[in-house]
Amino acid sequence: MKSAAIVVGFLFVAAGFFALGRFTASGTGSPSPAPAAQVAPAPTPTPQAPKPPQQQPPAPGQPPAIFRVEGDRQPPPAQAPQYPVPPGTKLATDPSPSKGPSNAKVIVLEVSDFQCPVCKRAYEPLRALADDFPGQVRMVFKQNPLDMHRNAWNAAAASIAALRQGRFDAYADLLFQNQGSLDEPSLMRFAQQAGMDVAKFRKDYEDATVRARAKAEGAAATDMGAQGTPSFFINGQMQVGWASYDSIKQMVQREIGAVDGLVAQGKSLKDARIERVRANLTDKAAAFLGSPLASEFLQP
Fold it and tell me: Which of 108, 270, 278, 294 sits most deeply, having the most CB atoms within 10 A of its CB?
């Protein structure tokens, strides 16, 4: 009996080991393999805006960049004029609007465009220039209606028509105060508002010689290098654009001193002014003195 019990126990243990081996071989209860690691996609690089070109300093011996003051300098588009001027049309000979004596030591030309916002800012303070230098300065208004301003040529012609009725100052004020309304009906309305004979005003406004004069003054200024508005010629010394009233006064003061020196040497006032034009404009002086800009310089 004892032997039989030992055999049965042995068989029971063997069966247990057999079952344990089967369980381990099947993998039941064994840990699952770890999933593969997830790799985040590489971020898409953000496109970089191109860097602006670096401004290079001037090479040795080269002049620095020109400082530009305020003014209108946009290249003009092609535009057909409303009132074409026939080739060969003579220029109107009306004297330019001016303030100050004809025998002034310094003549300041203000070359302007009624549709130019910077011209408007310059016009008002410059009206005081002749008063600040009594008897020594003559302030003269010249035209340069830029083609980029669609109503500028009509406004220039209208201002000369107003000059013919002695109403330039009042009319110029209306033009500069209403730069956004310079269409033809408005120009006629301003003429009536300024107390003019509107029928005569319209006739002069349409006069081809008046329109030729306005364009010729602008072309002469451009030929001198004043390719924008406003521009100034102070005894020929040119400034393009508006810096400040004080800068103009300083230029005038220097010219008064230069003319006084020439007069002290025995030159006439007219000759002294012309000599200053030649000194200030050098190789362009002869063209200036022969242009519609120079009539005031040639008076005694």
Answer: 108
Q: Show the tokens assigned to 160.
A: 């000369």
CA distance 113 to 179: 10
pLDDT along the chain (300 residues), means of 10: 43 43 41 38 44 42 40 51 84 96 97 97 95 98 95 97 98 97 96 98 97 96 95 97 96 98 97 98 97 93
Predicted structure pTM score: 0.74
CA atoms within 13 A on the CB side of 141: 22
Nearest to 218 by CA among 111, 137, 295, 127: 111
Residue 23: other Cβ atoms inside 10 A: 11
Determine the pLDDT at residue 37.
Answer: 37
The structure tokens 């408007």 sit at 120
Here the tokens at position 81 are 């004029």
Strand partners, 238: 233
- CATH number of the domain located at residue range(s) 98-298 in this protein: 3.40.30.10
Rounded CA gap, 96 and 172, in Å?
Answer: 13
Q: 222 near 174, Cβ under 8 Å?
A: no
- The pLDDT of residue 69 is 60
Q: Other CB atoms closer than 10 Å to residue 27's CB: what's the count?
A: 9
Bridge partner list, 234: 108, 237
